[in-house]
Specification:
The relative contact order is 0.08. With 342 residues, the chain is an alpha+beta fold. Strands 5, 8, 9, 10, 12 and 13 form a six-stranded mixed sheet that branches. Strands 1-2-3-4 form a four-stranded antiparallel sheet, covered by helices on one side. A three-stranded antiparallel sheet has the order 6-7-11, with no helix packed on it. It folds into three domains: 79 residues, no CATH class; 104 residues, no CATH class; 114 residues, Immunoglobulins (Immunoglobulin-like).
Length: 342
């Protein structure tokens, strides 16, 4: 409140009313009076605030005038659209926005001579996969940090999962490897929403490049990547004098799926090799296990294991066994070696 008189209010902020307090030497003692110069500054300040406020609100009517399809486009491309492109799109008349969307994808097409826009297809495919891969945490998977990184950089070359962190009482942690870079995600709220850690920000040069160049690598054009390690376990059960059943167990949360319409699909390939003590292979078996689940079914199974069983007929004796597991989607692979006694 501005004071219209020269009286100082009884407040600790006024030095003249505090017993024993003295103004600093050389300071102008105004006793609460507002000078004409200050009135001019205040009068000039409020119109400036009003202009800033009104200009910040101006974007809301522009977005409100978009159709549902245009809003969906603007939301989906949030990770790759530039601020300049966004402003241009919002300022266009509705009759020109369709042409803008077509041009937006055309200039990102790595092979304009073909009918299919590989970049657009890959981008939307990654968005759909992120929705299905990261189903916990409240937010839709593609809006979470893991989804954003997955969309911009694709599947990690290696994915480490620590359900209880590095220590027993730690937070759930995931580490994604892209070349020599590690991106760390931590679920500090225990709700399934893994957040990218600040220390990983300096590792995101690839993401900045992807956003600035507008052409993140298309998976079809990537050089062959090394398979990511696939964690699973083996249980051996003797079912008869000459028969052994191998159970291959892998958590559903470690399986990568691809989105096919309204289902999530993949296949796991299991290969078993049995060697005698001399190192000679005495048995070889391979089997494929296709998976096709709804998103709801995967949510129900996310904390359970998928079990794949293979029966082996062996003569009595000791053997060395090797089990290889491959996740067709994501190209994850794992291998276990162990001994069998029949």
């Amino acid at each position: 409140m501005l004071l219209s008189t020269g009286q100082c209010p009884r407040s600790p902020r006024c030095l003249g009313e505090i017993p024993g307090a003295q103004p600093e030497a050389g300071k102008n003692q105004r006793n609460g009076r507002v000078t004409p110069e200050e009135k001019v500054k205040l009068v000039s300040f409020f119109p400036l605030v009003l202009v800033v406020f009104l200009s910040s609100c101006a974007t809301f009517p522009r977005e409100a005038n978009l159709t549902d399809e245009e809003k969906d486009f603007l939301s989906t491309v949030r990770y790759i659209i530039t601020q300049e492109e966004r402003n241009t799109f919002l300022n266009l008349p509705s009759s020109e926005r369709g042409a803008f969307i077509d041009d937006f994808w055309k200039k990102r097409d790595p092979k304009p001579e073909t009918e299919i826009n590989e970049y657009k297809e890959e981008y939307y495919r990654r968005v759909e996969e992120a929705k299905h891969l990261f189903t916990e945490g409240g937010l839709s998977g593609w809006l979470q940090d893991r989804g954003r990184i997955y969309i911009l950089l694709g599947p990690p070359e290696q994915r480490e999962q620590y359900p209880r962190g590095y220590t027993f009482y730690g937070f759930p942690t995931e580490i994604w490897h892209y070349g020599f870079h590690r991106l760390i995600f931590v679920d500090t709220r225990w709700n399934g929403n893994f957040e990218l850690q600040p220390e990983s920000a300096r590792m995101l040069a690839e993401i900045n490049t992807a956003q600035m160049q507008l052409k993140p690598a298309i998976r079809k054009e990537k050089p062959e990547e090394k398979p990511a390690p696939l964690d699973f376990r083996i249980e051996v059960k003797r079912t008869s004098a000459a028969e052994v059943t191998l159970s291959v167990l892998i958590p559903y949360r470690n399986i990568w799926f691809s989105s096919q319409k309204d289902r999530l699909e993949t296949a796991l390939e299991v290969a078993v090799e049995i060697f005698n003590p001399a190192g000679e292979r005495v048995l070889s078996r391979s089997q494929s296990y296709p998976l096709s689940l709804t998103e709801k079914k995967l949510k129900d199974l996310i904390h359970q294991d998928l079990t794949m069983e293979i029966s082996l007929i062996l003569e009595p004796g000791e053997y060395n066994a090797t089990v290889s597991l491959k996740n067709v989607t994501g190209k994850g692979e794992g291998k276990k070696q162990f001994r069998i006694k029949v």
